[in-house]
Each structure stands twice: as C-alpha cells, then as structure tokens.
Automatic annotation (TrEMBL):
SUPFAM superfamilies to which the protein is assigned, alphabetical: Winged helix' DNA-binding domain (SSF46785)
Residue ranges constituting the HTH marR-type domain according to the UniProt record: 22-158
Coiled-coil annotated spans: none
InterPro entries on file: HTH_MarR-typ, MarR/SlyA-like, WH-like_DNA-bd_sf, WH_DNA-bd_sf
Signal peptide from the UniProt entry: none
GO biological process: response to stress
Superkingdom, taxonomy of origin: Bacteria
Protein name according to UniProt: Transcriptional repressor MprA
Gene Ontology molecular-function annotations: DNA-binding transcription factor activity
Amino acid sequence: MSEPQEYARSGYWYPDSESASTVDVLNMLRRYRAAETAMRARTRASMGMNETDLMALRFLLREQRAGRIVRPIDIARMLDISTASTTTLIDRLEKGGHVRREAHPTDRRAGVVVPSVSSDEEVRATLGAMHRRMLTLVDELSDQERAVVTRFLAGMTASIEEASDLDQELRNVIRDEKGPHAAE
C-alpha cells in the first residue's frame, strides 16, 4: 500500500502495519482533542477572551480555591510570558470585569490579582454542565477501567513530553552537524 492510501485509510499518519483498533483509538483521541479545542474556543468567545486570558483566569480561580494569593509575577511564570505582557493581560482582564487588583495582605509594596465573583460564576455556568457530563462518564467506569484510562492518558502525555525533548535533541544534532563553519 502506498503512503497516500495509508493516510487516507487511517486518517492519521500511522503506517499500515498498525492494527485498525490502534488507529481507531488514536483517531478517537484526536477527535476528542478537536472537540475540546472547539469547546474552549466557544468558551473564550462567549467570555470575550483569548486563550491566554482564559488560562490566566482558570489559574486565578484554581489558586483562589486553594487559598493561595496570586501576584502578577505568578501569572507571568505560569504562562511563561514577560512581566510587560502580564501587565497588559491583567489590564485586559480588569477592563473586562474578570479580575481586580488589590494590595498584598502582608507586603505593602506588592499587589495581588483576584478573580471577580462574576467571572467564577460565568466560568462555572459555561463549563459546569460539560464538567458534570464528564464526571458522570468517569463515575460509570469500574476502578479497573479508570486505572487503564489513567495509565493510557499518562502514557500519551509522556509521549508528547518526550517528543518535545526529542525535538530539542534533533535541533542540537542538526546544529552540531553544521559545525563551526555553518555561518560562513
């Protein structure tokens, strides 16, 4: 079978030697990821936010539930963005009524970022029904099935994280093969 036919058969880039059930699982995982991505886009659109805004707001809500104070630098580190970008992000969230700035409770020189009550309610209203459906599905699994799913998802996560490491290794090999005269 030629490569284009393999891709057409599987809908993915896995070789024909993989069993149909393996390809089906990977295609279903891809379908789940596409559905989740579409759901996130709808959520962002309904709240008037971009992906980074939503990530920051979810972080703030999670930290608030855990009883932790969030400083702008904490948001910058979590998102891996500059402090200038963080200031712009917080300004945008504040203008949208999603967060407010407050004085740090113990350090007068520092400020903290607090999610608004309405944002917490909006996120819960937007995502609550979906989260309940997902929890119901997981609750219907036996302990053994949950263990299998957990192991599978942990393995898939590790595969992706390892691919990132391999990408860096490949860039290093290419750079090393070019050698010191590559710039000449």
